[in-house]
Amino acid sequence: MSDIKSIIKGIDKLKPIPQVASKVMSIARDPESSMSDLSKVIVFDTAVTANLLKVANSAYFGLHDKVDSVHQAIVHLGMDQVVDLVVISASSENLKSAQEGYDLNAGDLWKYSVSSALIARELAEKKEANEINLIFTAALLKDIGKVILNQYVKDSFDKINALVTEQNFTFREAEKKVIGIDHAELGGMVAENWDFSPQMVEIIRNHHLPQKSSISEFESSIVYIADTICMMMGIGVGSDGLAYRFHQEVVERLSLSDRDFQKVISGFCEKLEQVYSMIRI
Q: What end-to-end distance do the CA atoms of the chain give, in Å?
């Protein structure tokens, strides 16, 4: 078993979420906020503004008119879409590197995280969720613990894999058994360290649904289903990708049919290359 204190210290090596992204997330959760409030926060951060305009003008959105300002981006794309883009931009640096312990090449975890977040947003909108931005961000950052745990998984992979293949452990359970902590638990600690809301912390910590119920059960279930759909599509499937249990009762609780799954998958497949072109910017 690894030294848990040393692992947790790895949180400090991550690049913190920029202050502008934290402010943007707060604005998104405030029902009284306006386009003007959002624009004022973003416009003074040159890096975030530049990236927002690049993405807004990319093929992914296919806008007829060029977007030249933060205000225009918000008008054309809407507040929710701009919030998503700012959070995506803010999280990119931590998620783009290769994760050899999980058999993920450079960019794989990043593509998977963005895809999962976009699918989670679609599901949240379909189910008329109240906390759509929360669900999106939690889905995007749910595997941030893998960035820290990567080297420990790599060093202990044979032991972890033996538990998965020979004793029917899930990959997360095997991580916990061998290393002493799993990537979801560690991701929750990262979220706490970055002063995210208790709901966000819990969704990230429980995105594989290890517990039967939680205060954010609905939101966690949406993120779990988005994760499952990504696996079904073969997005970001590394050494751990298929070594998790499928919870049919979650599908039933959310009243999702096979047709719903098919529609989400087919619709997302059509725009997958556009998603990848967007995150390469």
A: 40
Number of domains the chain contains? 1
Phi, psi of 24 (to 5 degrees): -65, -40
Q: How far is it, in rounded angstroms, from Cα 95 to Cα 112?
A: 10
How far is the C-alpha of 136 from the C-alpha of 253, rounded, in Å? 20
Contacts of 172 (CB under 8 A, 6+ apart): 182, 183, 184, 208, 210, 240, 244
DSSP secondary structure letters along 74-122: HHHH-HHHHHHHHHHHHHHHHHSS-BGGGTB-TTHHHHHHHHHHHHHHH
Cβ atoms of 222 and 200 closer than 8 Å: no
- Residue 242's CB: how many other CB atoms inside 10 A? 13
- Domain that residue 221 falls in: 4-279
Residue 185 and residue 205 in contact, taking contact as beta carbons nearer than 8 Å: yes
pLDDT per position as a tens digit, 24-57 = 988 988 889 999 999 999 998 888 899 889 888 8
Describe the crossing of helices 198-205 and 183-193 by its angle, rounded to 10 degrees: 160
Strand partners, 104: 99
Lookup: tokens for 256: 């999702």
Q: Are 20 and 91 in contact (CB under 8 A)?
A: no
Instruction: Dump pLDDT digits (tens) for 202-258.
Output: 999 999 988 765 656 899 999 999 999 998 888 888 888 777 878 888 999 899 999
CATH of the domain at 111: 1.10.3210.10
What letter would DSSP give residue 60? T
